[in-house]
Design brief:
Length: 114
């Protein structure tokens, strides 16, 4: 489980909105940088055709960071729209659709993230 200076992600803590425990409120720059790293890792995985288990691990990082399934699906849809506008290869688009299946739970039980 991802820990930042001993703190759990906000969605694991019973007082998630309390300033003492909410890492978003304490270190917004650090959290924004983590978000950029995850986004870059996801895009690189799609473009370099990571296997499904590697993409699953990236989605687990999003979940552990506190993202909901809906927010990740929305982000993936926007990436899909961007890829379709730019004319990306069909293999990459298929890979993204597979990742979207993982994000919405349309997969084997051992691959479910949310």
């Amino acid at each position: 489980m991802l820990r930042l200076n001993g703190y759990l992600p906000a969605h694991y803590h019973p007082r998630a909105n309390h300033p003492r425990y909410n890492t978003e409120m304490k270190w917004p720059g650090v959290m924004a940088e983590l978000d950029r790293i995850f986004d870059r890792e996801l895009r690189e995985g799609l473009e370099e055709k990571f296997n499904l288990y590697q993409m699953h691990a990236i989605l687990v990082k999003y979940r552990d960071r506190g993202f909901s399934s809906d927010s990740v699906q929305e982000m993936l849809r926007s990436i899909l729209d961007e890829f379709r506008r730019s004319g990306v290869s069909e293999d990459i688009e298929d890979g993204l659709l597979d990742v979207m299946d993982l994000a919405c739970g349309w997969c084997s039980p051992h691959l479910k993230v949310w």
